Each structure stands twice: as C-alpha cells, then as structure tokens.
Amino acid sequence: MKIALSELGSVELTDVVIESVDLSLYIAHARLGEEERLIADRNGKVLKTRNLLEMQRTIRKAVTCELFLRQRSAYDEMVGHSYQAADNVMELPLGREPLPEWLN
C-alpha cells in the first residue's frame, strides 16, 4: 500500500526508512506504527531517486521524524551458501535534524 508524500505531514509517523534497492536507487517507506507503506510522488508512482541526499531533501520538506537507511546484503546468495541464509538487513539512523543549509 502507498501513501502520498503530501499526506505525510497529516499522519502520525513513527519514522521513515530509505531503502537502498540497487547500487544507486533509493525508495522510501513510511512507518505508521507496525505498518510500512511505500511513499508515492504527486503522480502516484513510487518515490525513487538515484541519490540518497536527494531523497533526504525531498522527505525533509514533508516530515521532521527520524530517518533510517536500510541496506540488505546478498552475500550469502552470492557465495552460494547451501544453508538457509539469514535476512541480512541493516538499518542505520540518519537522524531527525534538518539538513545543514549547505546541503540544501
């Protein structure tokens, strides 16, 4: 399920997770309690960028909650481990402070 970027200011967000999908492709999810929703742009398409800083700028215009960067590792699959691979997810806090002026 999606939520529009313009709606983020009117709902009670827990935080926002920016997920690194590919080498330089980022999508964002809004956490509303235990539920995660994809963030959509004004055209209803999934909000995606090729630059993490650009994604932060876009989201910071709409919300002030904490941001996280989510990274998944496919290492176990790449090296061909025969056992069931664990979910290699790492979430790094990006903070809740606005970006410095020189980054805007």
Distance between the termini: 30 Å
Strand content: 35-45%
Q: Give a quick account of the main beta sheet: strands, pairing sense, barrel closure.
A: 7 strands, mixed
Order of helices and strands: EEEEEHEHE
What's the tally of helices?
2
Using the coordinates above, name the CATH class.
Answer: Alpha Beta
CA radius of gyration is 15 Å
Rough shape? globular
Number of domains: 1
Number of strands: 7
- Which stretches are low in confidence, meaning pLDDT under 50 for 5 or more residues running? none
CATH architecture name: 2-Layer Sandwich
Helicity level:
10-25%
What is the CATH topology classification name? Nucleotidyltransferase, domain 5
Query: Would you tell me the structural class of the helices and strands?
Result: mainly beta
What do these coordinates show?
By secondary structure, this protein is mainly beta. It has one domain (1-73): Nucleotidyltransferase, domain 5 (2-Layer Sandwich). It is built from 2 helices and 7 strands. Strands 1, 2, 3, 4, 5, 6 and 7 form a 7-stranded mixed beta sheet that branches. β3 (25-32) and β4 (35-40) form a beta hairpin. It is globular and about 45 Å long.
Entry summary:
With 104 residues, the protein is mainly beta. It has helices at 52-60, 75-78; strands at residues 2-4, 15-22, 25-32, 35-40, 48-49, 67-72, 89-95.
